From TrEMBL, chains A, B:
GO MF annotation list: glutathione transferase activity; maleylacetoacetate isomerase activity
Species, as recorded: Aldrovandia affinis
Coiled-coil residue windows: none
Protein name from the UniProt record: Glutathione S-transferase
The GST C-terminal domain, residue ranges: 92-218
Gene Ontology biological-process entries: glutathione metabolic process; L-phenylalanine catabolic process
Family matches, as CDD domains: GST_C_family, GST_N_family
Length: 226, 226
């Protein structure tokens, strides 16, 4: 039981989701948790700011230990509960390097997705340019092709760091699922599609599936033409 | 000796510099290394692409193990050479959480610095807006104030994760030094200034100081009014 842990989270946020997957994989059940609404600006509420002064979700606390950055929280949980639940760290030097490499490349993927999907959210109307959005889309296509290539290399997969599920999957799967939710074509990106299919029914992932995606299984098609 | 390691790097790049600091701290001397020029586009050369298909520096190889993402490389080096040189991982749960938290907050600092310093580099002329650059500057000031506050908390410091030098310092110091190089005022940001002074003469940092900063000790003043 993990009654000394508190997680404040938002539905569909890859940073929140990855912490929830890590908690499940490490067998940390029964933590205090609260689903908050980004739309209602609840991530800027006093409740969040007390744990996370940046006013961002996730906000995560283990006893008196606060660790809000989602990568940090996942790594912290693996390190503190190493012998509990699923071992999430690759063992050999080569696998460990690959795990770390993919984890951090995942940030580039997430950034480039966000540059396309949140363009109108992040850029005020008077500053928007079709040419900028087009360039962001091209950068995202290039990035998606890097991931396709990584997954189809001889001996690669089925997981991101090789034969075992690892922190790389905990951290990057929500980003890939997010791309699929927004219409990523599994015909144009078959290796990403296959990876998504392999993981989507994994118990830790199913148990933490974004509730508003369950309520409304049809996502948007922002990315379908990429 | 670390003759089975190769590092291709660029001068003044925080991602390259942090890997060099990690190598020094772990006592890994004598690695093969080559200084390349971003200006001459040498990071897009065949030599780099063979190790790092993204055409970015650092490009780093240990035997057959490739790990180019700079955070990944630093964490890999600590993990593979744990008992050698300076221990770079905090021990207690609280220190470990703080170390990880600061490491990842460091990415936000680096991003916001880049959004100001490289604005004209990243945004084509026809898409530039004074309002956007102004917003980026305000976001950077807010971020710098977060770091000031972190460093002045009761019991904080002198290092980023507390009493010991750790991966958080290896990773974030180059970003802070970069801000100082571009004119950050130690009057307006005294805790960042103090932190910079504490670390700038540390042997691992002095030994890896960007050579073109040594040649030309006077930096630019882009950030002096922030």
């Amino acid at each position: 039981m993990a009654k000394d842990m508190t997680l404040l989270w938002g539905s569909g946020s890859p940073p929140c989701w990855r912490v929830m997957i890590a908690l499940e994989e490490k067998g940390l059940k029964g933590y205090k948790q609260k689903l908050l609404s980004f739309e209602k600006q609840e991530h800027k509420s006093k409740e969040v700011l007390e744990i996370n002064p940046r006013g961002q979700l996730p906000a995560f606390k283990h006893g008196n230990v606060v660790v809000n950055e989602s990568y940090a929280a996942c790594m912290y949980l693996e390190s503190q509960f190493r012998s509990q639940g699923t071992p999430l760290e690759a063992q050999s030097a080569g696998e460990q390097a690959l795990m770390l490499q993919r984890m951090f490349e995942g940030q580039t993927l997430q950034q480039k997705l966000s540059d396309v999907n949140y363009y109108t959210w992040h850029v005020p109307e008077a500053e928007r340019h079709d040419s900028a959005l087009q360039r962001n889309k091209e950068a995202l296509v290039t990035e998606l092709q890097v991931w396709e290539k990584n997954l189809q290399q001889a001996g690669a997969g089925p997981y991101l760091a090789g034969k075992s599920f690892s922190l790389a999957d905990v951290i990057v799967f929500p980003v890939i699922a997010y791309a699929v939710r927004f219409g990523l074509s599994s015909e144009r990106y078959p290796f990403l599609g296959k990876y998504y299919s392999l993981l989507k029914d994994r118990p830790s992932i199913k148990a933490t599936w974004p509730p508003h995606w369950l309520e409304n299984p049809q996502g948007m098609d922002t990315l379908k033409d990429l």
